Amino acid sequence: MAAFADILKQFFYAPDEDIGELFKLPAQAGQMTVFQPEESAAEYLAFVLEQESYAVPIAQIREIVRAVPLTEIPRSPKNLLGVIKIRGEILPVYDVKVKLKLRERAPIVVGLEGEAEELPGSARILIVRDLEGDIGILVDRVLEVIRLRPSEIEPLAPGIGGGDYLLGLGHLGKDLFIVLDVHKALS
Amino acid sequence: MRSPLEAQLDSDPAVQLCVFRVGYERYALDLRRVEEILRTPRFTRVPEAPSFIEGVIHFRGSVVPMVDLRKRFGLPVGPPAIKSRCMICRLGRERVAIQVDGPTEVLTVRISELHPPPTPGPAAGGASPYVVGVCGAGEELKFLLDLKALFLSRAADEVGDSW
Amino acid sequence: MTSSPKGLSDFVAEATEILDALNRDLSILDQRRGEPLDPGLVNGIFRSSHSLKGLAAMFGEQRIAQLAHHTEDLLDRLRLGRLDLTDPVVDALLESFDAFQVVLRETERQEHSPDATQRAQAVCRKLAQFSETAAAPPRDDALDRLDLDASVRGVLTEYEEHRLLENLREGLAIWKVRAVFDLANFDQGLGRLNSKLKSMGEILSTLPSADPGDGTGIAFDIIFGSRTAAEKLKSALAGISASLHPLLLSPEREAAAPGGAATLAVAPLPSRARPGSSVSPPRPAVESRLATRKDPPAEAESSERLLTQTVRVDIGRLDSLMDAVGELLLIKANVARLADQASQSGKPAFGKLWGRELHRESRLLERKLDDLQKGILEVRMVPLGQVFDKLARTVRRIARESGKEVDFVMHGGEVEVDKLIVEALSDPLMHLVRNAVDHGVEGPEERRLLGKKPRGQVSVRATQRGNQVVIEVSDDGRGLDEDRIREVAVRTGIVAAEHAAELSERELQNLIFLPGFSTASRVSEVSGRGVGLDVVKTNVSRLSGLIDTQSERNQGASFTITLPETLAIVRALVVSVSGRVYAVPLNAVSEITSIAESDVKTVEKREVIGLRGKTIPLARLARVFQLPEKARMRHFMLVVGLAHRRLGIAVDELLGQQDVVVKPLGGRLRHTVGVAGATDLGDRKPVLVLDPGAIIEEVVNPERRPELV
Question: What is the ipTM of this complex?
Answer without folding.
Answer: 0.75
